[in-house]
Design goal:
Elements lengths: L9 E3 L1 H6 L9 H16 L2 E5 L5 H16 L2 H4 L12 E3 L5 E2 L2 E2 L3 E6 L8 H4 L15 H13 L6 H14 L7 H13 L14 E10 L2 H4 L11 E4 L8 H7 L6 H8 L8 E6 L6 E4 L5 E3 L7 E5 L1 H6 L9 E3 L7 E11 L3 E2 L3 H6 L9 E2 H9 L2 H4 L1
Parallel strand pairs: 1-2
Antiparallel strand pairs: 2-12, 3-6, 4-5, 6-7, 7-14, 8-13, 9-12, 9-14, 10-11, 10-13, 15-16
Helix pairs in contact: 2-8, 3-6
The site of 2-oxoglutaric acid has 11 residues, from β7, β9, β13 and β14.
GO molecular function: metal ion binding; oxidoreductase activity
Pfam families: 2OG-FeII_Oxy, DIOX_N
Keywords: Iron, Membrane, Metal-binding, Oxidoreductase, Transmembrane, Transmembrane helix
Length: about 400
């Protein structure tokens, strides 16, 4: 992170969304103001809240409600959608299965990825082929989450009733920008970097991959119970490069190569991933902590009606370090169970990620990062990153 920021700025992005598809958006005063704020936030904190984002509050809340309901179910029920190599690493992982810095994270989660159809990305995408594992209970879980994802990505994958309701929402709000929030924030960030608004369209992130984690953090009392007495870290310090799937499942995939200890050590090696993250967190439980340059932890206090956004490592590469991803962690000290839904907006699966020429010029003319193909990194994450990175 770049500075000793003391707070995380709140940015009203509605002027940006209103003009996002206007070819002259960069000449608009409202857009320029938002772009300036984005630039400052990305340089100073790597984190910002967005308000005026156009996603209905009722949907944002409902997504957290169904997530609470799912995690409230007995373990035998939750495990019905267990994540494994056979599910393309999609599905439920229990508390402690995720590891950061060799410590089990005190959270459970459902991991989802954009659907990969058979043969879509050849042999590279094969291990992750498949569609997401949605629970049957609560019964509206799948439809609700698919609607939510379509609004965040602009991928109108749900036909029938939900597409129709989305259409009505769009008409009511008179704004197409509702349907692709992440892309539109990226258009603002592209301008903030000094590029054109469509810098990340096309081959870079015009057909974006996405990852979503629905995360449940047990309350402090149960977290300190007998099962894992010392661990109260919900999610260890990290930048957004993504999470490794359950080690047990990875061993099922590459059973003979690694000992569990070695797996954990290699897991610590950094993987570049993630462009922009949008976190939808419980309104009443402050738990997400962001580290500034001196190591002070700045709380990303929940602010109703906002998403917490942070830039990921892929943007760090594209911007040649002009924008950095910031370390953050989660500790739920409240006795209440906390839920957050982290949505990771990613480059195209086949995208080649390397410092943009104009960013290189702005940062001393030297390329600070090597070229990476996003899909290779992603798949390596779930398979061989343990071996080669
Ligand atoms: O739970 C949160 O508030 C954030 C989670 C997070 O940082 C992540 O999953 O990358
Ligand atoms: Fe994160």
């Amino acid at each position: 992170m770049a500075t000793d920021f003391k707070f995380i700025p709140i940015i009203d992005i509605s002027p940006l969304l209103a003009k996002c598809n206007d070819p002259k958006m960069d000449e608009d005063q409202g857009v320029s103001k938002v772009v300036k704020q984005l630039d400052q936030a990305c340089r100073e904190a790597g984190f910002f809240y967005v308000k005026g984002h156009g996603i209905p509050d009722s949907l944002v809340k409902e997504v957290k409600d169904v997530t609470h309901k799912y995690f409230d179910l007995p373990y035998e029920e939750k495990i019905k959608i267990k994540m494994s190599a056979a599910t393309g690493f999609r599905g439920y992982q229990r508390v402690g299965e995720n590891v950061t810095h060799s410590r089990p994270d005190m959270h459970e989660a459902i991991d989802c990825y954009r659907e990969i159809k058979g043969g879509m990305y050849g042999a590279l995408g094969e291990p992750m082929e498949g569609s997401n594992k949605w629970p049957d209970n609560p019964s509206n879980f799948k439809s609700l989450l698919e609607e939510y994802i379509s609004l965040l990505t602009g991928m109108l994958s749900i036909l029938s009733f939900y597409l129709f309701s989305l259409f009505i929402i769009i008409i009511i709000n008179n704004s197409w920008s509702l349907t692709d929030l992440s892309r539109n924030i990226m258009r603002g960030i592209a301008l903030a970097l000094g590029g054109s608004p469509d810098e990340f369209d096309g081959e870079k992130a015009g057909d974006p991959f996405w990852v979503m984690r629905l995360i449940g953090y047990p309350g402090a009392t149960s977290a300190n119970g007998s099962e894992m007495p010392e661990n109260d870290i919900g999610c260890g310090a990290h930048t957004d490069y993504g999470k490794v799937s359950g080690l047990a499942d990875l061993h099922a995939y590459i059973p003979t190569i690694l000992t569990p200890k070695l797996s954990v050590i290699l897991f610590l090696k950094k993987l570049y991933r993630c462009l922009l993250t949008l976190v939808n967190q419980d309104d009443d439980i402050p738990a997400l902590q962001v580290r500034n340059r001196s190591g002070e932890l700045i709380l990303a206090v929940p602010i109703p009606g906002t998403f917490v956004c942070n830039i990921g490592d892929m943007l760090k590469i594209w911007s040649n370090g002009l924008y950095e991803s910031t370390l953050h962690q989660v500790i739920n000290n409240s006795p209440k169970y906390r839920v957050s839904v982290a949505f990771f907006y990613e480059p195209n699966f086949n995208a080649v990620v390397e410092p943009l020429e104009f960013c290189k010029q702005k940062t001393g003319g030297i390329k600070k990062f090597e070229r990476a193909v996003y899909g290779e990194h992603l798949v390596r994450k779930v398979l061989t990153n343990f071996v080669t990175d």
